[in-house]
Amino acid sequence: MIMETRKWFPIHGQEYRGVPYRPARMDREESVAMADHLRRRMNERRTVRQFSTDQVPEQVVRDAIAVAATAPSGAHQQPWTFVLVKNPEVRRRIREAAENEERVSYAGRLGDEWLAALRPLGTDAEKPHLTDAPYLIVVFQQRYLLDEDGTTHKHYYGDESVGIAVGMLLTALHLSGLAALTHTPSPMRFLSEVLERPRNEKAFAVIPVGYPAEDCEVPDLVRKTLDQVLVEI
Ligand code: IYR
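That is the input. Now the predicted structure with 3-iodo-tyrosine docked in place:
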């Protein structure tokens, strides 16, 4: 038997090679019911900033990352790295560095208009979720591909690709019963240092994952209605 080793990425410049794709068509009722179910379930998702320190099943977190890694990406370059941080000491260092940046941000670096936009969320420079939540998923964007021999290849639509992957990650975590926060301390360069990432990667978001604290509150916000976001032509 010939064992074919498939590379994770076509050799640069490889010609197109198609394989059949024939997913079974879902029947109409099943499709409508699933869409309605997902809409309701996803409407229950809230960004959580107060986490319980309770452990969550690691397999659920790993599977959610595997879901994110199925995201479509520019030229199928899959320009993402997910760093799963469980170590309390590393989480403590991330919290300390993030709070140092956030203090400067909230003290005025963000500017009055931005601070006013954040007021309804009730956020501040204190980031206890970074040490309370049992996991941090730090998502890095590979700005370019760095080969083992040091050659680089341009990545296309990196922001969009990683944004889509993060959306899928948040969806998978929520549907698996876990709470998350999309945290973007700025600037995020300290994450590359603390987590010793290579020079082609830049931090995209820090996502604490866990269960909401027993006394968790979320801001009293409303979502736009479908009418407000959908234009039909
Ligand atoms: N990065 C800061 C500020 C912040 C910015 C936005 I835009 C938010 O939606 C929420 C917070 C922080 O994490 O507090």
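The chain has a mean pLDDT of 95.
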